[in-house]
Amino acid sequence: MNYPILVLGASDELIIPDFQCKEVFTCNSSAIKGKIYKNKFNSCKHTNVTPAKAFYKIEEIRNSVLESSPDNLISRIGNIDYRKYDQLTNTNYQEFSQNEQINFQKKFLKKKLFVYFAELQYKKDIVKKIFHLKDCMTWRGFLGCSTGLFAVILALEKNPNSDVILSGIEFKGGNYFQGDRKMTEGRAFVDLFFLKHLKEIYKERIFTLNRETANRVNIKYFIQ
User: Fold this and answer.
1) pLDDT on residue 176
2) Mean per-residue pLDDT over the chain, rounded
3) pTM of the prediction?
4) Start-end of H helices in 114-172
5) Which long-range contacts (CB under 8 A, 24 or more apart) does 108-111 make?
6) Helices then strands (H, E): number in the chain?
7) 2, 3, 4, 12: which is closest to 210 by C-alpha?
8) Residue 95 — pLDDT band, cuts 50, 70, 90?
9) What are residue 220's DSSP bridge partners?
């Protein structure tokens, strides 16, 4: 049986489904939710995607990743010295550089340059767009889609014959399921542009467990 792939984000609207998936991808602090899901379905692999900067800077993210002891840990940008953590002894590790993660995103878009146009959606005011573009070209670097959506395209790439089901990724600003931090609305605008220009061969395999999200961003609703 070709089981689907589950991708869990960190939105407070996240729900953990009761059906079996072949692999669960998590991003940042949703790692702890991946652990809960894997406890339900032991044969499921758990892959967490977290940028090195977030891992070291935000304690709740680091604690969630370590407590979940994922099968695979992928740093979206930068190096995580996973060898120093006993919880990651049996974890397979992979990392992307700044440029590698941008080039990876290009593969999924109808036109490669759209990844840069997507980044420009981070700011709505034209003057702020110009300053943001300058920052990206000089010191910030281009990020592109959110880490949640980055986990989605990783899942699509790794499992070309499986549907990918989202929970806790709503493509809007709002609360995380833990802590007092807020999701960045600007990055949600980037994601919406990215989704709009995603190649159809990928978009047709994306489903969400949130009916409102399905209607709002034009992806399929998964009926359990």
Assistant:
1) 53
2) 92
3) 0.93
4) 114-120, 126-135, 147-158
5) 108/153, 108/156, 108/198, 108/199, 108/202, 109/194, 109/197, 109/198, 109/199, 110/197, 110/198, 110/199, 111/197
6) 10, 10
7) 12
8) very high
9) 207
**What tokens does 168 get?**
């806790």
Amino acid making up residue 221: Y
Sequence-separated contacts (24+) of 138-144 with Cβ below 8 Å: 141/77, 141/98, 142/98, 142/102, 142/115, 142/116, 143/77, 143/119, 143/187, 143/190, 144/101, 144/102, 144/105, 144/115, 144/118, 144/119, 144/190, 144/194
CB 73 within 8 A of CB 80: yes
Helices (H), 176-221: 185-196, 200-203, 211-217
Number of neighbours of residue 92 by Cβ within 10 angstroms: 13
pLDDT tens digits for 110-129? Answer: 999 999 999 888 888 888 88
How many residues in the chain?
A: 224
Which two three-digit tokens encode residue 26?
A: 């998590």
Over range 146-171, report the average pLDDT: 96
Give pLDDT tens digits for 19-69. Answer: 999 999 999 999 999 999 999 999 999 999 999 999 999 999 999 999 999
Residue in this structure with the two tokens 């059906």, named with its chain if needed: 19
Task: Return the beta strands (E) in the chain as ranges.
Answer: 5-8, 23-27, 45-49, 72-75, 92-95, 164-167, 174-175, 182-183, 206-208, 220-221
26 closest CA partner among 91, 110, 90, 99: 91
Place of tokens 């990020």: 143
Q: How confident is the model at residue 141 (pLDDT cuts 50, 70, 90)?
A: confident
